[in-house]
Amino acid sequence: MSITTRKTALSGLALAAVSSMLLAGCSAAPEQNNGSKSPAASNFIPCMVSDTGGFDDNSFNEIGKQGLDDAAKQLGTKANAVESQAETDYASNINNLVDQGCGIIVTVGFLLADATKTAATANPDVNFAIIDDNSITLPNVKPIVFDTAQAAFLAGYAAASYSKTGIVGTYGGIPIPPVTIFMDGFVDGVNYYNSVKGTSVKALGWDVATQTGAFTGGFEANDTAKSTAKNLLDQGVDVLLPVGGPIYKSGAEAIRDSGKDIALIGVDADVYNTDPSVKDLLLTSIMKAMQVGVKDVVIGASKGDFDNTPFVGTLKNGGVDIAPFHDFASKVNPDLQGELDALKADIISGKVKVESPSSPK
Question: Where exactly are the structural domains of the chain?
Fold first, then answer.
């Protein structure tokens, strides 16, 4: 397990495949965009550049692309999506799409922010959207971000309630805001459970105060991710939250190898549905409605209805939430769902404050 610090920054990573979740923007979009003309829908090409996780990651890249494909289908056109094999591909992939006349280019993830900003600055007549970053303030770049700490808070509360050992844990891929926002909310949710129940459940793998914790160094499901998970399990963790696309697969391997009764928490989408191979391990998932957000932004851009006001997903507008307990419904405390419903209402009303340094401002 590596111990890493991270800088606090704006924005909130990286599946919500729940098309019924509605995502609302911070404010109504203006009638006209940043000055670029609105092409006919049939000539409008929606484009996307992935992070290195690829479009088969069962996570944020894949769900982002689903939103792109849904928009293209509605528009009667064909989407153009390009995978990045390495971080060095970001700039060239974006520039290639600019050259192909894309109507909008959606970049998937915080790590593409620099390349997106450079391309958008050089091409002010091209509209861009970026998932999980709101640091770019150009008129032709629209952030699609999520206050994931709110949903992660609920998951932390649920994990603390379910734990038999009194120890839960989390680890991330890279210490960037879209990852650590999950970890902040999760640990704070555990602490909130302790405060209202008078318990002392421990959360390992992330220290909210110092913003340090356990990271694998990337978003690949590999031996490093598995050993990081195993390190936490060896310390008695019986509910595990891996944050970073496919690294949950390594966490699942570590759980199966342990032979112990350990629950997994998914991220980005309801992983129970997106990856049935691990559904028997899943307590719940922390979801982000990226599919809905991407589709809405792309459709708007095709109509000339584009501005740079961030699209922020919250519990209130359905942009974030936790998944049902599915197979674990009979295993959790029968009062837990009611407690979570009440807690969700308190977060929405502001009675319970959920804050992370990485929450969208």
Answer: 9-146+290-313, 148-287+319-347
Q: State the fold for domain 148-287+319-347.
A: Rossmann fold (3.40.50)
- The phi-psi region of residue 313 (left if phi > 0; otherwise alpha if psi is between -120 and 50; otherwise beta) is beta
Reply yes or no on whether the pLDDT at 21 is more than 60. Answer: no
Mean pLDDT of 311-326: 95
- Residue 254 is given by DSSP the state H
Q: Which residue has tokens 């959360």?
A: 203
Q: What is the mean pLDDT of the chain?
A: 89
The span from the CA of 191 to the CA of 166, in Å, is 12
Burial class of 43 by CB neighbour count within 10 A (0 to 12, 13 to 18, 19+) = exposed
Residue 101 has pLDDT above 50, yes or no: yes
Would you state the CATH architecture of domain 9-146+290-313? 3-Layer(aba) Sandwich (3.40)
pTM of the model: 0.82
For residue 5, what pLDDT is reported?
34
Maximum pairwise Cα distance, the chain: 61
